[in-house]
Amino acid sequence: MVTFRTLVRITAGLSLLLAGACSTEPASTAGTGAGSGPSELAAPPAGLSRVILVGDSVAQGHGLAIGAALGAAGVEFHSMASDGGGTVVGPTSDQLWAELPERLRTAKPSTVIYQITSYDWGTEPKQKAAYERLLKTVRGVGAKLVVVTMPPIKPDDFYAGHMDELARAPKVARKVVGDDVFLDANAVWGDTYQRMHDGKVDRSTDGVHTCPQGAARFTAWLLNELATMYPGFTPPAAGKWANTGWSGDKHFVGC
What we know:
Layout lengths: L3 H7 L3 H4 L32 E5 L2 H16 L3 E4 L13 H5 L2 H8 L3 E5 L8 H17 L3 E5 L8 H4 L2 H15 L4 E2 L2 H4 L6 E2 L2 E2 L10 H18 L26
Helix pairs in contact: 3-10, 6-8
């Protein structure tokens, strides 16, 4: 597992590479495409070969960096993250889940990364049932499910009544999927929301989303975690993906 000190070394040059994060440079589409159409794809090669990201709008921002990085490594990537809600459990999950199993079946991913969302509300039995359903669905399409924790948030009135449920969600998910495929991103974010990291803007002013530097740091960490799970995968150097245009995407607000 990548420790905090290791992460600091990995991402030491990301701030310089992301100096133009607020530019109007168009976002890169490298590494995207799997599962985006109605046609059923062929089975993926063995190993880390076709990755699908599932989550909420926080994961959407991360997907921009992840897609660029995996594209640089020759790995297919597509984001199925949902803007404005959680797909698996929570207040919008019934509607969003209705489409996900078929989209995963036709995309035939090798790996599904689920980033726990700020909408993973509900009782413990509801959370457990939802994560079990996700695990069964992902295994049913022949893929590996990797669950990763969300960044800590600064709760407003919308979230204030759900913080205990959000704190419980990772614990429930970990019991369902097991330690081998559960990734705690605490090494990236720490225990609490922190807008700045090493003197640079890391998180949005909204207290929930991440900025390009945060997305890049998270991606560098995630790539190394995936390399541990998939020995045949070598993370590309940050210079090959960190400044390829994705940081100028309009998704990044409050940065």
